[in-house]
Design a protein that fits this description.
The protein is an alpha/beta fold. Helix content is about 40%, strand content about 15%.
C-alpha cells in the first residue's frame, strides 16, 4: 500500500473506473438537505492553452477569455509593446496576471534574473517551475535531493524579488523510488516559506494518487491549482474541465477551505483552445459546492 492510499496493484483501467464515480468520492458530503450554494469567485487559465490564438491576435483572445468568465491569467510572457501597455489592456478588460514561468532548474542561476524581471514587470505574485527536475524520470533519491536543493535556492531568489516560487507536478512524482514517493520528498525537503506547490489535479490522478488526499495531506503548501480533466477510458487522455471524469466539486471545496484562491484551467495538446476555455468557463461558473 502506498502512502497516498492507492494500492500498487490497482490497474489504470480500474483507477479510471473509480474516477468515473468521482475522484473525490471519499470527501465528506454536504449535510443532508443542505443546498450547495458556494462557488469560486474567480478563476483563470494558463496562457499555453491558447498559445496559437495569442500569437494571432492576443487582444481579441484575452477579451474572449474574459467574456467566458476568466479574470486571471498565468503567463511569463509580455504581449504587445511593453509590460505597462500589456497590463493596461488587461486592467481595462478585467484580467490579472497572477504568475508564470519560462525557466527550469537546469538554467544557469545567473541567467534566471531576466525571467524573474519579466514576472516583476507583470506584477505577478508567483514564479512557477513547470519541470522541477534535471532528468526525465522516473526519479531516484539522488534526483530528489538535487531538485529540493535547487528549489530552495531558487525560492530564496524569488523571495528577494517579492515572488513566491511554486513547482508544478506531473505523474512521475508518484512513481515510488527507493525512499517513498518523489512528491512526498519534495514536500518534506523544500522550505515551506520559500517553496510552494502548484498542484495539477489531472497529473496527480494520472499518477495513481487521490488529489483530495494529497490536498489534505499538505494543507498550506498549495497556492494554485491547475484544473485539468481526464477523459473516460484506459488511455486517461486530457480533457477540458467539465467534460471528463474528475469530480472537481469536492476538490475545489477543500481548496477553498484551505484558502487556495487561484484555479487555473489547463488542457495539454488542445486543438481549439478558445472553445475549451468557453466550455470550461461555463462549467466553473455553474459549479456549486
Amino acid at each position: 500500500m502506498l502512502s497516498d492510499g492507492v494500492h500498487p496493484s490497482l490497474s489504470r483501467r480500474a483507477f479510471a473506473k473509480k474516477l468515473a464515480v468521482g475522484v473525490a468520492s471519499l470527501a465528506a458530503l454536504p449535510v443532508l438537505g443542505e443546498p450547495a450554494t458556494k462557488r469560486i469567485d474567480r478563476f483563470g487559465f494558463i496562457a499555453g492553452i491558447v498559445s496559437k490564438e495569442l500569437k494571432q491576435d492576443w487582444r481579441s483572445t484575452l477579451k474572449k477569455a474574459v467574456d467566458y468568465g476568466f479574470s486571471e491569467i498565468e503567463t511569463g510572457s509580455i504581449y504587445g509593446d511593453s509590460a505597462p501597455a500589456f497590463l493596461s489592456f488587461c486592467s481595462q478588460i478585467g484580467l490579472k496576471v497572477i504568475g508564470g514561468g519560462g525557466f527550469s532548474l537546469s538554467v544557469n542561476p545567473n541567467k534566471i534574473g531576466p525571467k524573474l524581471d519579466n514576472l516583476n514587470a507583470l506584477n505577478a505574485r508567483y514564479a512557477v517551475v513547470y519541470w522541477p527536475w534535471l532528468v526525465s524520470g522516473p526519479f531516484t533519491l539522488s534526483d530528489c535531493q538535487r531538485s529540493a536543493e535547487l528549489l530552495n535556492k531558487l525560492g530564496e531568489q524569488c523571495k528577494q524579488r517579492g515572488l513566491t516560487l511554486c513547482w508544478h507536478n506531473h505523474d512521475k512524482e508518484f512513481i515510488a523510488m527507493e525512499a517513498g514517493l518523489p512528491f512526498d520528498y519534495l514536500m518534506a525537503y523544500t522550505e515551506p516559506d520559500l517553496v510552494k506547490c502548484e498542484m495539477d489535479l489531472y497529473w496527480v490522478a494520472k499518477g495513481g494518487a487521490d488529489p483530495l488526499a494529497m490536498l489534505r495531506k499538505y494543507s498550506g503548501r498549495y497556492t494554485i491549482l491547475h484544473v485539468k480533466d481526464m477523459a473516460l477510458g484506459p488511455e486517461q487522455n486530457f480533457a477540458c474541465p467539465g467534460s471528463g471524469i474528475i469530480d472537481f466539486k469536492h476538490l475545489i471545496a477543500e481548496a477553498c477551505k484551505q484558502g487556495i484562491r487561484h484555479f487555473m484551467v489547463e488542457r495539454d495538446n488542445v486543438v481549439d483552445g478558445l472553445t475549451c476555455l468557453q466550455t470550461s468557463g461555463e462549467y466553473l461558473r455553474r459549479l456549486r459546492f
